Amino acid sequence: MNSYLESNSAFRQGENRDMITKPVFIVYGVSGSGKTTIGSALAKKMGVPFYDADDFHPESNIQKMAKGFPLNDTDRAPWLQDLANNISKWSSDQGAVLACSALKVSYRNILASVVPEAIKWIFLKGSYELIFERMQSRKDHFFTSEMLQSQFDALEVWKDGISVDIDQEIQRIVEEIESKLKMQKSEIGVIGLGVMGKSLATNILSKGFRLSVFNRHLAGKEEDIAKNFVSEHSNIPQGFDDLSLFVASLAQPRTILMMVNAGPAVDVVIEQLLPLLDENDCVIDGGNSHYKDTLTREAKLRKKGILYVGAGISGGEEGALYGPSIMPGGSKKGYENCGPFLEAIAAKDEKGNPCCSYISPDGAGHFVKMVHNGIEYAEMQLLAEIYHFLRFHLGNTPDAIHEIFTSWRSNSKDSYLLEITADILQKKEGEDFLIDKILDKAGQKGTGGWSTQAALTYGIPVSTISEAVMTRCLSAKKEERIEASKVYARSFSTVKTDPSIVEMLEQAYYAASLVNHAIGFDLMKQAAKENKWELNFSEIARIWTRGCIIRSDLMENLTLFFEDSNNTPLLMLSEVVETLDKSIDALTTVVSRGIGMKCPLPVLSAAANYLLNYTSETMSANMLQAQRDYFGAHTYQRVDKEEGVYFHTDWKNI
Ligand SMILES: NC(=O)C1=CN([C@@H]2O[C@H](COP(=O)(O)OP(=O)(O)OC[C@H]3O[C@@H](n4cnc5c(N)ncnc54)[C@H](OP(=O)(O)O)[C@@H]3O)[C@@H](O)[C@H]2O)C=CC1
Ligand SMILES: O=C(CO)[C@H](O)[C@H](O)COP(=O)(O)O
C-alpha cells in the first residue's frame, strides 16, 4: 500500500503553496517607446517593485551592445530565461512591473515559460517617426536611434494583453493602462467573499484569470468588502457591491461562482441574478447545498437556458486558497463552460491531474460532497474517541498521544485528519493544553445528518456516519449530561497503556476507517442506481486524494482498488478482506475492553457491529420478522422455502 508520507511530505497542501502568484506586468515595445518611464510610473501607482530588463543583461551582452552590435537570439536566450525565473520569484512575492522590449513572440514565450498565468502584457504603441524623434534627443543610452528600424522590423503583433498609445502625457498613459486593464471583461465572477469565497477568488486570480468579485452591501455591517478585496490585490480584479455592474463586467457567456451560505441565501442570489443573465451563462453553486435543492435549481434554471452546476468544494479556507477538491454536478454543458476554471484552481493529484471531475447530472456533485462530509464526520469521531480512550482510560498525556498518532502516520495510515489531530494535541495556552479548554459540545451544519437521512431514504446502513452524527447531538446536551453524571456517578477504570493495546488500537482504527469508507461508497452506489447517475468510484476516490478534508493514504489505495471493480462492494475486495481479516480481532477486543472500562466508543463499536453483522451468514433478523408477524401480521419468508413467498403464523396458538 502507498504511504502518503513517503510520496508527499506535505499532507496539508504545502506542495501547492508556491503556486499562489501575483501579477507581473510586462511593459513592452520597441526601444524608445518609454518602457522604463511608463513602467516605473505604473509600478509606483500600483505599489509594486519596478524592474528594467536591461539591468539583467549579462556582461557579454552589454559589451556587445555598447560596441554598437545588435544582439542575436542566441545572446538573448539566457537573459530571457533568467528574467522568466525572476518573474516567477516576483510573482510569488508581491508582483512587479517589468520593462522589456520582448519584440518577438518567441521572446515572450520564454518570458512566460515559468509562470504564464502571472503575466499581464502591456504594449506601448507609437509610430516610427515619434519614437525616432524621441531617440534623437536621448544622449545617455547605449542603444542608437539607427537601430530603431531593425526593432520595428522585429516587432511581432501579439494578441494577448492590452496596448496603449504613447503619444500622450505619462500620467494619462498610466491611467489608460489601469482603465484598460479594468475594461477587459472578466472571465469569471465570484459572489460572496466570506471565508471560502475570498480564498477561492485569490486562488482564481493566482491562476491568471481576469476576475470580478461581488459582495452584498449591508449598511453598517457589510460595507466595501469587494472594494477591500480589490485593493488587497493590486487593483487587478474588479470589485462590486452592485450586482448588475458585476454581471456587466463579465465576458459572455458568463461564468459565476456563488460562494454564499447554503439554504435560502442561494435562492435569494439566484432570484437577483436571473433577470441579469443570458442564455448559456453558467452559474456554479460552490457551497454545501442539499443535493435535492440543487436538482430543483438546475431544472428551474435549465428552462431559462441558464447552465447550473452544483459543485461540492472541500478543503476549508486553506484548501480553497491553495487547491481544493471539487465535485461538480448538474449541467454537463455548464461544466464545459466552467470546467477549465475549476480544474485550474483545484488541487493536483499525485500525477498532477486536477482533483476536479464532472460527477453526474442533477444534484450528484452535491450528493458526493455530502457523503464526503458524512465520511469526514465518522473519521473525526473515530480519532476523537481513540484520543479520549488513550488519554482518560489508558493514562496517556497529550504529548504521548501525539507521538502515537505520529507513528501511525508514518505507518501507511496517514491522513489529513490524523495529521491535524496530532497537531491539536501539541497546542498549548501557557502551561495548559488548549484541547482541555475547549467545551465538549460539537457543532454541525447539516451535511452529516443529510447523509443519514439519504441513507434512510435509500435503505443503506451508514452506521458509522449516523453514529458520528448522533454522538455530536448527544455532546450538545452538555447541561443534561452534567446532571446525569452526578446521578449516575460511576468510576472510570484506568489501566496503564501497554504497547499491545496501542498496536490493537492502530489496527482497530484502520479497520473502522475501512468500514466507514465502505459505508460511504455504498451510499453513493445506491444513490447512483436510483438516480441513474454514472458514478465512477475510482475517479471519486482520486479527486479525494488531495485538497479535501478526507485525503489519506487509504484514499490513494481506494483509487486503485476501484479501478477494475466499480461495482464490487469495498469490503469484498480481496486486499480489503485480507486487511480486515487480520484486524477484526483487534477491533472487537478494543471495543470490548473500552466499553468494559466505561469508555464510550460509538463509532469504533458501530464499525465493529457493522463488520460482525456484514460478515455473518446468519443475523438476528429472523427474530425481528417473527415479532413483526406476531403483533402485526407482517408476514415472513422461510429459509426452507423460495424467497418471495410469504407466511403468516397465528403465534398466540402455541
Ligand atoms: N468554511 C468552510 O470550511 C467550508 C464551507 N463550505 C460551504 O461554502 C459556503 C460558504 O461558506 P463560508 O465561506 O464558510 O461562509 P461565510 O459565512 O464566511 O460567507 C458567506 C458569504 O455569503 C454571503 N451571503 C450570505 N447571505 C447572502 C445573501 N442573502 N445575499 C448575498 N450574499 C450572501 C455573505 O455575505 P456577507 O459578508 O454580506 O454576509 C458572505 O460573503 C457554505 O455553503 C459552506 O457550507 C464548503 C466547504 C468548506
Ligand atoms: O464541507 C466542509 C469540508 O469539506 C466543511 O468543513 C464542513 O461544512 C464542516 O461541517 P460541520 O460544520 O457540519 O462540521
Automatic annotation (TrEMBL):
GO biological process: D-gluconate metabolic process; pentose-phosphate shunt
Pathway per the UniProt entry: Carbohydrate degradation; pentose phosphate pathway; D-ribulose 5-phosphate from D-glucose 6-phosphate (oxidative stage): step 3/3; Carbohydrate acid metabolism
Molecular functions (GO terms): ATP binding; gluconokinase activity; NADP binding; phosphogluconate dehydrogenase (decarboxylating) activity
Recorded superkingdom: Bacteria
Catalyzed chemical reaction(s): D-gluconate + ATP = 6-phospho-D-gluconate + ADP + H(+); 6-phospho-D-gluconate + NADP(+) = D-ribulose 5-phosphate + CO2 + NADPH
Keywords, comma-separated and alphabetical: ATP-binding, Gluconate utilization, Kinase, NADP, Nucleotide-binding, Oxidoreductase, Pentose shunt, Transferase
Role, per record: Catalyzes the oxidative decarboxylation of 6-phosphogluconate to ribulose 5-phosphate and CO(2), with concomitant reduction of NADP to NADPH.
Assembly, per entry: Homodimer.
PANTHER family in the cross-refs: 6-PHOSPHOGLUCONATE DEHYDROGENASE
Protein name: 6-phosphogluconate dehydrogenase, decarboxylating
Species of provenance: Aquimarina spongiae
Organism classification: Bacteria, Pseudomonadati, Bacteroidota, Flavobacteriia, Flavobacteriales
